[in-house]
Amino acid sequence: MLVYSLLVAGSFSLGSIVANEIAPSAINAIRFSMATVLMGIVAFAGPGIRRCHFRAPWRYLVLGGLLASYFLNDV
Questions:
Q1: pLDDT at 75 over 60
Q2: Is residue 49 a contact partner of residue 43, using CB atoms and an 8 Å limit?
C-alpha cells in the first residue's frame, strides 16, 4: 500500500515537471500504448481470449476509435 501511495504521489510531481515539455497527444499516446500492453498481458495470463471474442472484431475498433477521438480531440 505504501508503494502504491508513493507511485501515485510521484506521478503528480513527475507530471508537473514533464507537462510543459511534452505535447498532450504524445502523453496520451504513451498512456494508451502502456494500457494496451498491460491489458494484453492480463488477457493472455488470465482466462485467455476465447474464439467467441473474434466473432465481431469491428466492435473493438469502434470502441477504440471513440476513446481515441475523446482523448485526442486536439488532433
A1: no
A2: yes
Q: What number of other Cβ atoms are within 10 A of residue 45's Cβ? A: 8
Backbone phi, psi, residue 27, to 5°: -65, -40
Q: Give CA–CA dist 44/47, Å, rounded.
A: 7
The CA angle 70-62-43, to the nearest 5 degrees, is 95
Domain ranges, ordered by start, for the chain:
23-75
Mean predicted lDDT score pLDDT of the chain: 82
Grid cell in block for residue 35? 494500457
Instruction: Report whether 25 contacts 74 (CB < 8 A).
Output: yes
